[in-house]
Give the backbone structure.
Amino acid sequence: MAMNDDITQMLFKVIDELNQLRPREEHLKKDLATPLAGDFGRLDSAGLINLIVMTEQRTAQELGRPILLTDDRTMSRINEVFRTLGSLADYIHLLLNEKHDG
Amino acid sequence: MEIKTFTVADLQLALLSEDFWLAKTLPITKQRALSFCQNPRAEKDDPVLLVAYQDNQIIGYLGILPDKIFFNNADHKLGWLTGWWVDPSSATKGVGVILLYKALNTYRERIGVSGGSKEARKVLHASQKFIALNPLKGIDIRFRFNASRAVFRNFPWMKIFGVLFKIAEVLLNEIVNFRRFFWERRNRIRQRLNFEYFSSIDEETGRFIERHHHLDLTRKGKAELNWIMTCPWIVSAPQKDAAARRYFFSSISARFFYLGVKVYEQNNEMVGFLMLNVRNDRMSVVYAHFENRHAPSIAAAAVYHALAMDVSTLRLYDEQLVKSVAGLHCPCWSTQSISRGFFLSKAFADILPADCRLHGGDGDFAFY
């Protein structure tokens, strides 16, 4: 089962990758408190989709198990799941645990 | 945030409801909703509109146009995305993302997109869910000299010379009229060709289309073309009405109509079919069917009608018509290459043949 630290490090790599697509002044901080989507969010639609796709790919590559962040269940809680980098890490942890239990 | 999915049946109920049309922001116009409900390729339970609400206010919406595409001797259902809008104040709330994935999930990842804004294309690209088809290449043929609009847009202070610009344009356009007179005499359009006009497809035209559309990706037949012609999304009106002011996309134009043209040669043989869309001073050939050997005659017929209807621009996307126009020596000021982009979800990537044919009206283009 993936540890929280593994998930955090994986997400920091996603942020590095995402920042390469963004102007310097719009770079996201590698911090679990960094807001992503929602009222204080930093990502527009294209940015959020990039984050989703990169996260799905890196989770499969680095944590060895695929997750789906585009299903109706996740989409219905999008502002909760993607509120901050930390909330996304918690959600990934939950998904991986569910898979592990299943 | 709550996402409501409207099926065709829900939209029929919404049309009867008063409350639905009282919203500060409309997710669809009545005209467009009526058209969605009449779509011959839609089932009653097909989702056709996704609306995002927050605190009972609409903060985004996405229309879906159910259609079929044809290849490998089979038809495949898909939905074309149309009218995708997100309230700019909610740009970071993931509304556009939810709408896109909701559409993809609802249609089992069988989605098409025709055109789209720069932002929409960025989102589609980021999702890695779509492949771009070869763009449809066409031309705009400009018959009217209309430089003042572009000049005033870039240099508003030049408006003080507005009268001089208008006089110059009138004089220059008289040159086109003069050239048109000789062009029509040289090409003997009325001697060589006869035309029959219609506002809905008759049996003869339906059979003619069926004989010529086997390579078309969307293979629009009599029922589908009749639907487009009789259920437009845009209404001809002198000014925006109350609904148009609350809906982000086009719903009103000063001049908007479709015209079907059957083209006959002098021996009374039907050699072509044109479905024309006239919007203000632009005419587009949205669907055209003919045999390649008749392409020069059909292109001449399109130019003839553009001149007869006094439009500034004729827009063509059919490859054979575009090629034929060069040999016609049209009385125009300029021509400009244009293109239309089409995207299909990757679910189709491995099965789509390379030789499928697109028309200028495919996707939701026929409605604009």
User: Anything to note?
Assistant: The first helix of chain B runs from residue 8 to 16. Chain B touches chain A through 23 residues (CB under 8 Å).
